[in-house]
Amino acid sequence: MSEASSFAWLARVSESFFVAHNAHLEAETTVARHLLHRERLGETLVFATQADRALCEAGGDVWELSVRRQDGTLAHFVGASLSACLATAQRQLQVGAQPSLAA
User: CA 35: distance to chain centroid?
Assistant: First the structure.
């Protein structure tokens, strides 16, 4: 699925969504500290696998996709690429699916 069709699908299954790339640079911190801060704020970060988290932390490059579901709840998908975030979101946002905790 192309990123354009992924965004069209995401728009149909969510109220809103926000994409960020390397947001840790705004606070002049590392990816690991940025992710830890988000978790301390109570956000559950969903990675495709635990290895994806390690890849982000080692490479210093992180994409984040925050989605407000139609029921008003938030989901935060994180990965080393935008396509990884979109693929994880598509798997998790299937009707009745619950995000798995890989953090």
Answer: 11
Which one-letter amino acid corresponds to residue 95?
V
The residue written with tokens 């029921």 in the block is: 71
Distance in angstroms (rounded) separating the CA atoms of residues 62 and 85 = 10
How many CA atoms does the CB half-sphere of 45 hold within 13 Å?
A: 22
Predicted confidence (pLDDT) per residue in 4-37, tens digit: 677 888 999 999 999 999 999 999 999 999 999 9
The single residue listed with the structure tokens 């301390």 is 40
- Report residue 63 as tokens: 């994409």
pTM of this structure: 0.84
Q: What are phi and psi of 96, to 5 degrees?
A: 85, -5
The token pair that represents 75 in the structure block:
């989901």
Interior/surface letters 60-94, b for 16+ CB within 10 angstroms, e for the rest = eebbbbbbeeeeeeebbbbbbebebbbbbbbebbe
Round to whole Å and give the CA distance between 26 and 36. 15
DSSP state of 29: -
